[in-house]
Amino acid sequence: MRLGVYREGSKTLQALGGVGICCFSAKAAQASGVDGFADMTELNLRSFRILPGYLDLAQQSALVDALRGVVAAAPLFLPMTPIGQAMSVRMTSAGRYGWVSDRTGYRYARAHPGGQDWPDIPAAVLQAWRNLVSDRRDPDCCLLNYYGQGARMGLHQDRDEADFSWPVLSVSLGDEGLLRIGNTARGGSTASHWLRSGDVVVMGGDARLTYHGVDRIRFGSSSLLKGGGRINLTCRVVD
Q1: CB 79 within 8 A of CB 92
Q2: Is the full-model pTM beyond 0.90?
Q3: How far is CA 67 from CA 96, 142, 187, 194, 199, in A?
Q4: Does 83 reside within a domain?
Q5: What is the pLDDT of residues 172-194, one digit of tens each?
Q6: 222: domain range?
Q7: 3-class DSSP state of 68
């Protein structure tokens, strides 16, 4: 089995479209720390299930504290593409597998590039997975991407896990990021949506093999992370 390859695709950003909206009774409606969201709604954008403010401000802060432990055990590193180009995000992981990228390729690995095992996935992340995805099986990998000023992620697919019936769960913390959603093949129009701190996205069903990326962040738009920036967590079942 080949494991976990990001496949970059078209970088064209088109107009927003295809948004479905339904009611969402979020815990974050009390004190989310997300400006302008008194009433939370769940969005369906090209089958991406977007839950604004799913984590309230206290939950976000507690999760950031837990992630400090992850980074202490498995420090952030700057991944390289197979052609030797540095990516703009820094990353680390938690779980049985972590995501790595270097001249030998994009892949999941059992150990951090420094040689140590990956730390456990934080309990709050596992709880979100169990609430929104499944309580039958926990994810094998929680990838942490840190976006500093000017960082982005090109359109890509998450398509080499063993079983595509398992969704990918994404958690946003810190500065706003512009999610870009394409199609299941390269090219064509794209849709966009600004993700704010505490938002959670579930990519299952038709969304599971859809190209997606982060076009840019609004650096300094959140005070959650000291010094600014955005953390994105993505949880996957690998094998």
Answers
A1: no
A2: no
A3: 16, 11, 36, 23, 17
A4: yes
A5: 999 999 999 999 999 999 999 99
A6: 6-236
A7: helix
